[in-house]
Design a protein that fits this description.
Blueprint (H helix, E strand, L loop, with lengths): L4 E2 L5 E7 L9 H17 L3 E5 L11 H13 L5 E4 L11 H8 L20 E6 L6 E7 L18 H18 L5 E4 L6 H8 L2 E2 L15 H8 L2 E6 L8 E4 L2 E5 L16 E8 L5 E7 L4 E2 L4 E2 L4
Parallel strand pairs: 1-5, 2-3, 3-4, 6-7, 7-9, 9-11
Antiparallel strand pairs: 2-12, 5-6, 8-10, 8-15, 10-11, 12-13, 13-14
Length: 308
């Protein structure tokens, strides 16, 4: 399989984002998740599938590597390129992030990478998109390990570390210099940034928020870095299972996926599903919608204004 990602001849590139699968050991709830993922992937026919963390409920897995291998087999059967980042629960079982990454890399269609060893986390990497017949990158997809938990004296969740931010800035500068301008880019990670609270509280958003934004308590400046670098036009996260809103903050679309897994908490009236993301060749904008378990496609989500 060619592992170079390319826009289609019609100038479109379509991604399906599955998040918070929370796979255990292949129980009935897991099989329901697998059926949902297959249904949506078959319907959308994406160019790339992205898993944005908590692929496993690590503590619920008898053998975490075997559980990850079950997920890999499911994704591989679609014969579609796929990539992934880790969440805070993936390595809570008996396999480390590096061990789980090695399992993901067994897939013939996997584009997941461990990333540089000298920076924190496992799974910091960038994929390039090219024209249908071109050789130079024209768009970028960043994948970042947003960590797990903060030290006890701080509490809450982890954050993207300064060394990871510096790595992103180096990669961004390298591609910008080669192209002569910032390339339109998306970023995928698990834990939302503190700015997700800001965009909901002070800007018009589209979608639903049924739980707190569980962002880290410290802000390590990743949003500011993306804004100054000028390439990222949208970020896509998971973590909070019953939030699915998107909002524009200073030119960057901050967006949740739609929780996909049945072996974890949810909310009545908030069906599982996936987020579909579409880029157009040469354009600095992203189109996104939801594809739900009942086959319903939601292109217009409820508007939320700060005064409401």
């Amino acid at each position: 399989m060619e592992k170079t990602l390319r826009f289609r001849e019609n100038g479109k590139f379509t991604i399906v984002q599955f998040t918070d699968i929370h796979w255990h050991n292949g129980e009935a709830a897991d099989r329901r998740t697998a059926a949902l993922m297959e249904q949506i992937t078959t319907a959308v026919q994406p160019d790339l599938v992205v898993l944005t963390g908590d692929i496993l409920s690590g503590g619920g897995c008898q053998d975490a590597s075997a559980s990850m291998r079950q997920v890999v087999r499911i994704v591989e059967q679609w014969r579609v390129p796929w990539a992934a980042v880790f969440g805070n629960h993936d390595d809570e079982g008996n396999a480390s992030r590096r061990e789980l990454m090695a399992v993901m890399q067994e897939g013939a269609h996997s584009l997941a990478q461990a990333g540089p060893e000298e920076i924190p986390g496992v799974g910091n990497y960038v994929l390039t998109l090219r024209k249908a017949g071109g050789s130079a990158p024209i768009s970028l997809l960043y994948f970042i390990d947003s960590g797990s938990y903060a030290p006890p004296e701080i509490g809450g969740y982890g954050w993207i570390k300064p060394a990871q931010v510096a790595w992103y800035l180096r990669e961004s500068a390298r591609f910008t210099a080669a192209a002569g301008h910032p390339l339109p880019a998306l970023a995928f990670f698990h834990i939302p940034l503190p700015e997700y609270d800001e965009v909901w509280d002070y800007h018009t958003c589209y979608g639903e928020k049924h739980e707190d934004v569980c962002a880290p308590r410290l802000n390590s400046g990743f949003f500011a870095a993306m804004h100054e670098a000028g390439d990222v036009i949208g970020t896509f996260v998971g973590h909070d299972h019953v939030n699915d809103f998107c909002g524009d903050l200073h030119g960057i679309c901050l967006c949740y996926g739609r929780a996909s897994g049945y072996n974890t908490y949810g909310r009545d009236g908030f069906p599982r599903g996936a987020r579909v993301i579409q880029l157009r060749e040469g354009e600095r904008q992203v189109e996104t919608w939801l594809h739900l378990e009942d086959g319903n496609i939601v292109r217009e989500q409820p508007e939320h204004r700060p005064s409401q």
